[in-house]
Amino acid sequence: MKTFETLMKEVYDGKRKAGELSEEHILATYEKLNQGAKSGYGKYYSIVNSEGTPNHTVINMKQNLYKFSAAKDSDMMEKINHALYDGDRLKSFDEFMADVNKLNILYNRNWLSTEYRTARQAAQTAAQWEAFQKNKELFPNLKYMTQQDNDVRLEHEALDGVIAPIDSSFWAENYPPNGWNCRCYVVQTAEPAWNKIPDTSKVVKPEFKGNTGISGQIFNEDSETGQPFFALAKSNPNWEKLFELSKLYAPYEDVKTSKDGVVKVSIYAHEVDKKKNLNYAKVVVGNHGGVFEILPHVEINGKKNPEYRYNGVVGDRTQFNGSNIKAFITTSFQKCKEGNQLGAFENRFLALDFQGKLNLNNYEDMVAQLNSKIQKVDFIILRNGNKSLIDKSKGFNQYKLLDKIKRELL
Fold first, then answer.
1. What is the SS3 string spanning 59-115?
2. Interval 72-97: pLDDT, tens
3. For residue 91, which of 48, 82, 95, 182 is within the disulfide window of CB 3.0 to 4.6 Å?
4. d(Cα 32, Cα 19) in Å, to the nearest integer?
């Protein structure tokens, strides 16, 4: 990863302009905050839970930390570009570095340390929230607790001892942490709830109102009442497009590893298809090994990027729903047309998901149709239930494939 001074040299030389994002700085900030969240949440801090299905609370937290890191980077890079000049005079590089080093200390040491602690506590309370929900039939209420020492803020003292039902709207806005370096916490109790909850509308600052366990947001993303970095980022007219593109650099998580391969999932993998894509990747890696990546879902100007990368080649999945299998093959290869997911890639593959519906009655029609299309891709992956088969377009032979399908997929 590039050093801060190297990044600043690129800014000074005009290689990074105002408004642009620095993926290196975003990732460095994210990794630090993510460490804090993992420390707070515990050993199950994974985008896939123990049952192998997406853990939406953790996914939301990771995405929130990445977006916060990008918004913070946007603000820092804007200020760094302003530091290039003294009036109309371009500063010398040494002068420039003296000024931006102050920003570096402020953003990447002082503030980051506080943000790390906030991420850790918010993730910890999110994990507790999940446990509270599981036990709410026995202990239906929650009690707000401060540390009850001289460092407790006066506004948080007003919340001390409040007892409200776990599903009360009170906890949707006043669940800790309720400020930078807040040490408040909540316990589950069978004590009776208060008949009258005090007005707390002015107790918790707007940017801290919320509940990470419900929203998955460690840092409130509301552009008007949330953390200021989000509002500042949105003042950049190119922010939405720049952030969408930055998802391409977002971290991956290993969710299945073996001696022969690994499945990696982007924290921005397509939300709707995530479970199906994950199951498909696990079957392929389990049967064939290799590195199977589920890519971030990015949409620019109405165009979507591919879902997969397998051993360095991008690909996309289509799903057979049991209707016309020839039409299914034809439709699947539409993804290779210019302007579609795979149209811009010279090397590409198709992942065909038959969901156990490929059988002795339709597989010959499928292969016959495939014969006229296969040269549009480097290879195809056929999955039928827990079985899979990979066939390369170079040297494709439909008769051999028919035999392989009969032996390996049916």
1. HHHHHHHHHHHHHHHHHHHHHHHHCCEECCEECCHHHHHHHHHHHHHHHHHHHHHHH
2. 999 999 999 999 999 999 999 999 99
3. 95
4. 23
